[in-house]
Amino acid sequence: MSDGGLTRRLNRVKLVVLGGDNCGKTALCVRFITKRFIGEYDHKKEVTYKCQRVVDKEAIDLEILDTVSKCSGPTAGTLESYIKWGDGFLIMYSVTDRSTFQCISNLKRQIDHFKQTFGTPIAIVANKSDMENGRAVRTEEGQALANELRCTFYELSVAEDWTVVDSAMTQLVLEVKLAFHKQQLAMEKRSRMLQVGYALKNKLTRSKTMQW
Ligand SMILES: Nc1nc2c(ncn2[C@@H]2O[C@H](COP(=O)(O)OP(=O)(O)OP(=O)(O)O)[C@@H](O)[C@H]2O)c(=O)[nH]1
Fold first, then answer.
1. 99, 158 Cβ separation under 8 angstroms
2. CB of 158 closer than 6 A to ligand 1?
3. For residue 190, what are the contacts with CB-CB under 8 A and spacing of at least 6?
4. Got the DSSP string for 73-106?
5. Are 96 and 127 contacting, i.e. CB atoms less than 8 angstroms apart?
6. How many of the other CB atoms lie within 10 Å of CB of 71?
7. Which CATH superfamily includes the segment(s) 12-187?
8. What ipTM, to 2 d.p.?
């Protein structure tokens, strides 16, 4: 029975990086892939990065969509297509810019809405923790919001710490893989129940025919 391509998808994970202006979305993607922090980027369109990683002893084809969507999004349609494309999400804000923190709840709501489920793997990433002097959002506020929205939370500095960037990404890939497996198990269970249903129906039809 067809599983809607899920078996093929188990080794292919698509992540989307969302967040307000200048919070460090591109810096995070580039840092994860190249291990390097590059100060300035100039791109006005979304970019998809592709790479391979071994996660939990399995080679994963990873695609990461670096969006240019602002808090409210360029258009609702674009944000919808980003969300429908992704399997897992990083919602970023900068600890130095409160307006980016204020975007988080709305982006999470949009993900829940377009995915039609509350189980989508999502990490909230507070960036620029190296800029303590310019801090506008406290760590506890970020953690409390992540708890409320049931998301994993990381506070990090893309500029200063590659290892935390790497573990945030890797953990999200693991959560996506777990979600795939749960989906696959649910589909197998449904398919078995359907088979039992058909078998019972056939048996009932046969015994009725014999009575006649
Ligand atoms: N101090 C510091 N600066 C950072 C960090 N991460 C990113 N930046 C800087 O923040 C600015 C914006 O980074 P980008 O990666 O372009 O942010 P973005 O979210 O992709 O930007 P837009 O897509 O244009 O909204 C750049 O000047 C980066 O060098 C960080 O961890 N610490």
1. no
2. yes
3. none
4. -S-HHHHHHHHHH-SEEEEEEETT-HHHHTTHHH
5. no
6. 16
7. P-loop containing nucleotide triphosphate hydrolases (3.40.50.300)
8. 0.99
